[in-house]
Amino acid sequence: MFNEPHRRLNPLTGEYVLVSPHRTQRPWQGKVEAAPQDQRPAYDPTCYLCPGNSRAGGYKNPVYGNTFAFDNDFAALLPDNSGSTGLMPDALFQLEPEKGLCRVVCFSPRHDLSLPELSLAEIEAVLRTWTDETRSLSANPDIRYVQVFENKGEMMGCSNPHPHSQIWGTEHLPNEPAKELLKQREYLQRYARCLLEDYLIAELQRKERLVVVNDGWVALVPFWALWPFETMVLPMKPFRTLLDLTDADRASLADLLKRLTTRYDNLFGISFPYSMGFHQAPFDEEPHPEWTLHMHFYPPLLRSATVKKFMVGYEMLGTPGRDITPESAAERLREMSEVHYRTGK
Ligand code: H2U
Ligand code: ZN
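# zinc ion complex -> structure
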């Protein structure tokens, strides 16, 4: 691969990333984050997500034994938002109402565990809950997109270490899926093939960016990865949404997620922070033959548990960039053990 500065195209968004492999030797005298504290009790009486505890607005959590989903008490979107009528279309001042629903999904009653520390059966239960939530949100005629995501770790601004994720159902397509829809549609029209299906076939042949492969799913560092240890999870079968998965597909995805997130935790010996989520086809009554269900993991860490990547300066004003190549990041992740450093399992 190139050792000189180059740019790579992200075919899913149409945006470029600048790769500067020669810069990895540069000394770091900038911000060092405090290593996150990993010691937590199994139950925290002050946690608003632990079983039996109180939440905002006087709600009390049930003594749940598995996963637990509820309406976000501080939802960013509201279901009955009819908006102000009579808005004038204006080229420079466009505004429209947005309806939506925000859910919170706890992975486990255990306050001290995270995804890689759960059993395969427990991860399957999380996948089932995400699927059930997607089904009920998408049944609402006002909801055309369902975004499942987890924001993990203090470094990512996550407010609570209790393992949880969020699901937002919205009337409009969010920015990122909107870009991906356009690009996947263009590719299908041009090549009569799915962009991500072709991409997966090519990556399975090249092998240099693969991280974990099982019978149903692949985790890889995409050729155009922007975050140092960014990965994508792609299915071997042509799934469009979470609703297409069988129990067996969920079992194999649980296996892949456990192995991938264990490698992440082992990389710097900490509970690895990230934002991750699914990009599924919109629920707008269209068939979406262009779409391939996939996941993105965007971790902020660069070279240790305490040095994170800042997306600033030229990256905000020009083009985002990276130093370590996607190929070397994939190699580092491939070298990691699939035995978790903390649990020994
Ligand atoms: P994050 O840390 O990922 O933001 O998730 C916590 C969510 O939980 C956050 O969106 C919600 C916040 O609005 N929340 C409740 O729904 N009830 C509460 O009592 C506190 C926090
Ligand atoms: Zn808790």
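# post-check
The radius of gyration is 21 Å.
Residues 13-21+35-75+99-335 form a domain with the HIT family, subunit A fold (CATH 3.30.428.10).
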